[in-house]
Design a protein that fits this description.
The chain starts with 11 loop residues before the first strand and ends with a strand. With 132 residues, the chain is of the alpha+beta class.
Length: 132
């Protein structure tokens, strides 16, 4: 069976179901990507695709993708909005109603005051300075 010759695609096309110019390319991880551009004509769409290919090549050379344009605050806001519908109301309000109270009060160990005579956490050597 004869080998198929690779297609020479420039990665710029128009879809029948949607207006505008679309571009496609292979990203730095080898995945096929496509997106709609705001280009008015094919020349602008080819320039946008060339810019994407330049970013992909830089990512391959550097070994990682350059940082995006989103700030941490924007990403956190989108994440919290997404998670709001997935978290129980009691947890969102900080009540934690899904947990049974144990009755025990947790407090961090404090340093022992040698004049007060507090008991230590354990009797092992080197642990005499903590109290319960």
């Amino acid at each position: 069976m004869a080998k198929k010759t690779p297609q020479k695609r420039d990665g710029v096309y128009q879809r029948k179901d949607r207006p505008g110019w679309w571009i496609s390319w292979t990203d730095a991880q080898g995945r096929r990507r496509c997106r709609k551009t705001d280009a008015a004509n094919i020349t602008q769409a080819k320039q946008i695709r060339a810019a994407e290919l330049l970013r992909v090549e830089q990512a391959r050379i550097l070994g990682h993708a350059p940082p995006g344009e989103d700030t941490f605050g924007e990403v956190a806001e989108r994440y919290l909005k997404y998670q709001k519908a997935r978290v129980a109301e009691s947890i969102r309000q900080g009540r934690g109603d899904n947990q049974k109270p144990s009755g025990a009060v947790l407090r961090p160990p404090t340093l022992r005051d040698p004049q007060a005579g507090h008991s230590t956490l354990c009797d092992r050597p080197g642990r005499e300075d903590f109290v319960v």
